[in-house]
Amino acid sequence: MEYTLWAPQYELIRRAFGFDFAREEAAARRLSDLLPASASVDPMGRLARRLAGADAIVVGRAPRAGPPPVWRLPPTARRPTLVAADGASAVCLEAGLVPDVIVTDLDGPIASEVTANRRGSFTVIHAHGDNIPQLEEWVGQFAGELAGSWAGPPTDTLLDVGGFTDGDRAAYLACEAGASRVLLWGFDFRTAEQTDPALLERKLRKLEWADRSLRFLAAHAPCPLLKWEPDGTLAPYPSDNVLESTR
C-alpha cells in the first residue's frame, strides 16, 4: 500500500495510543544501524520472489488455533506460502512447517524466529518506540535473510507498506509483494492470553485496531483478503474505507 494512503490511518492509531513519534524515529535509526547491508537490497523484490502469484497464508497465534491445515486447500499450480506473524513462527515450527516469511517486532518467542530464519525464513523485523532493547539483543543473532520496517516514511533501509500489529502488517506485506490471495489463519480479535487486567485491556485495544487495519486493507488491497475459518471455509474479510468507521 502506498505510504500516502496509509499514513493518515496510522496517525489515527498513533493518537489513540499516544505513541511518541520521536521514539519511533530513534528505534528506526537503531534498527537501520543494526541490520546488515544486505537487508536494504531490494527488500520488496526479494519478498515478491517468495510471494508473488501464490496464496499467502498469514498465520496468527489466536488461542487454540494451532497451525494452518494446509492439506485442506485444493491443489494449485504453485504451493501456498506461509507468512508467520511473530509468535506464530513457533506454532509453525512445532508442526514441522518452516515459514517462508516471518513478520516480527520481537515481542514473542524470539528464539523460534531465529531458528526459522536460520532454516530459510525471510524475516522482516519491525522497529517501534518500545523495542530498542530487543533490537539490540536479537538483530545480530539472525543469520538468514532479513529486511526492516517501521511506522514512518519508507527509507532506503526500512519498509512501510501499512499495518499496525505483526498480524495485519504481515497481510499488508503479502499483498504488496504480489500474493494472489491472502488467507488469514489463527486471527481472533476478541480474546488474548493475558492475566494482568491493565495489560489485557491494552492488548484488546490493539487487537481492535488490528481488525480495523485489516478492514482498511480489504477495501484497498489488489488481492482478495479472506478469513480462513476453523471449519475450513474461506470468507471475504469485511471492508471499511477508514479505520475510524463504526461497525
Quick structural overview:
With 247 residues, the chain is an alpha/beta fold. Helices cover 39% and strands 15% of the residues.
What does this structure look like?
This protein has eight helices and nine strands. With 247 residues, the protein is α/β, with parallel strands linked by helices. The protein has one domain (3-65, 78-236): sialyltransferase cstii, chain A (Alpha-Beta Complex). The mean pLDDT is 92.
Tell how many strands the DSSP assignment holds: 9
The level-1 CATH class = Alpha Beta
Main pleated sheet? 9 strands, mixed
The rounded Rg comes to 17 Å
CATH topology: sialyltransferase cstii, chain A
Strand content is 5-15%
In DSSP terms, counting alpha (H) and pi (I) runs of 4 or more, how many helices?
Answer: 8
Low-confidence stretches: none
Q: Which secondary-structure class do the elements indicate?
A: alpha/beta
In the residues, how many domains can be counted? Answer: 1
Order of helices and strands: HHHEEHEHEHEEHEHEE
CATH architecture: Alpha-Beta Complex
The separation of the N and C termini measures 23 Å
Order of strands in the sheet with most strands: 6-5-4-3-2-1-7-8-9
The average pLDDT is: 92
